[in-house]
């Protein structure tokens, strides 16, 4: 898989993904996959439950 206009890979959870969330929500939607590097290699996430909470909290805190 490769990144496209509607598909974005993020290896880690940083605030930079918030720009992608904003772009996708203001355009035509899209998907962000965490734990995957820019080359499409799966790196995984150390704690999936905590990662989900972190993503949700970062989005909620920014709106």
TrEMBL record:
It comes from Eubacterium album. Residues 3-62 form the Schlafen AlbA-2 domain. Keywords: ATP-binding, Nucleotide-binding. It holds the Pfam family SLFN_AlbA_2. GO terms for molecular function: ATP binding. It comes from the Bacteria. This is ATP-binding protein.
């Amino acid at each position: 898989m490769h990144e496209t206009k509607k598909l974005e890979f993020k290896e880690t959870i940083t605030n930079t993904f918030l720009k992608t969330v904003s772009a996708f929500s203001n355009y035509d939607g899209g998907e962000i996959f965490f734990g995957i590097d820019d080359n499409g290699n799966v790196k995984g996430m150390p704690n999936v439950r905590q990662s989900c909470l972190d993503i949700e909290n970062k989005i909620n805190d920014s709106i």
